[in-house]
Amino acid sequence: MVSTADTRGQLLLVGGIAIAIVFLLSIILTNSLVVTTYTATPESADRIEEVEDRETAVRQDLTTVAAAVRNNTTFSNFNSTFNTSLQNYTRYRTRVSGSQSGVYINATLNATASNGGYIRSTPSITPVGFRAPTPPNPSDWVVAEDVDSVSVFNFTATGDSEDFVLTVEGDSGDVWELEITGSSGYGEVVVTPPGGTATTVCSSTSPGEDIDVDLVAGTCTVGGTTSTFATFESSVDEPYDEIAVQKGNKFRGYVWYASTGTFSNGKTGGYPATPAVDLTYTGPQTSYNRTIVLENET
Prior knowledge:
Blueprint: H1 4-71, H2 78-101, E1 104-109, E2 115-120, E3 141-147, E4 150-157, E5 164-169, E6 175-183, E7 186-192, E8 199-203, E9 211-214, E10 219-222, E11 225-228, H3 232-235, E12 240-246, E13 253-259, E14 269-274, E15 276-282, E16 287-293
Antiparallel strand pairs: 1-15, 2-13, 2-14, 3-12, 4-9, 4-13, 5-6, 5-12, 6-7, 7-8, 9-10, 10-11, 15-16
Helix pairs in contact: 1-2
């Protein structure tokens, strides 16, 4: 018969062996994980860094392409012109990267994943003002709400414009304002940043002279002379709660506007204010697809 002391000793021995086995297994598993991690890290890190560098370069290139197309084509022709430019770019990029790394790239516009719409002044409404696209075409109206990105906001105003006000309210509630005032055919553009002083940034020098304003770039051109001003983008926080117009019936000229957001008073049409691009990378070691959205390409 086994004594109590012997039983206790056997239990301690078995328990000790079990603990030792668990301890040894944990060491083996831990070392295995460490070895696996460090063995794979150098090759993986190089490959990941190469992919990241390539994608960054492609994104920068496509941002430049989108801005160039946007500045040199109409709203209605943007998609087709951009796709043609993407084809030209991929042919160029394939020649360069294909000969260096063996990686080939294809890019196409994903119109479904692209966000935004556009509004332009409607010549059929006389006189040509900047009123809501949807009847009854109110003069005091909200152009867009919850706007993450404005890609185009240009207008050409004549000296006949007067008392036209445009406001951009930022996420924090600050308001940036632009006003066009006029008298006897002479017009001037006045900009007031949040908490700032109203400043005349440009004015016509002859009756009825055109004033060209790019609100995204912050430029005002009259008679070939260009001046600059603080943009709403640099003055208020994104997303913009609303972009609104007061006395749009007092505006005389033409307006081109494109952005993301909600167009509660209607829009002229859909437009990729933030274009989405489908990319296909094909190389000797990896092939994959990626969809990127080009933000703030202006």
